[in-house]
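We treat protein structure as text, and this decision shapes the records that our systems exchange. This encoding replaces a full spatial description with a residue-level series of whole-number codes. Below, we set out a record of this kind in full and without editing:
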Amino acid sequence: MSVLQTIWHDLPNIFVTLFQVALIITLLSMDDWKRRLRNIGLYILWQVDWFAIFTSIDSLFPVVNSNSFLAPFRYLIQAVFGLSIAVDYGLYIVIMGVAFWVARNSRVQFAVTFGVFVVFWMMIVNTQYGLLSMCVIPHALGNICNIRLSPIATVYTIFGFNPMTLGYSLLEYPQWMMIFALPFMLLYNRQHGWGSRGTKWFFYVFYPVHILILYFIGKGGF
């Protein structure tokens, strides 16, 4: 899927994001808390080190800076090195996925966790708070606020919030509607469904194929 993204840059790829969620869950699944702490420490060190390496190669990390000469290969870089910086849908969704795992043993805790993440998302994206927060540092320094140059905007980008779409109404940016998936998620009974193995591989194929079809329809290719 990352190869397809390198060819057609507008394609989404949830696989890289899900990989980060699964990786962190695996690292946190060790019985010994010392091993869990060590694993997370190594994970963070890996992310920081490669961020520094790519930053030293180019002026800004290619995943963040679209003008980087490495930017056309950002998707392959993310996949090959297992980087969590600016994965599709952002670190926010990665953290939410791990939080779902933490709350997996209680439907109430799961529902509350999901609700908290959705409300926080709405506060950042669908209100003026996200926009105003990007101007805190410039205003404190007595400067004019430039959203594109705001360090808070870079943080938002890494976590999956597009600084240029903050403040949109609920209908203009309806990502909050993901909360309507909650009733179906609560129906999960921890059992494999009928034909689970074949179904799994079907959707591994279906996802990139249907994304490509929708992409070309959107581009007027069909």
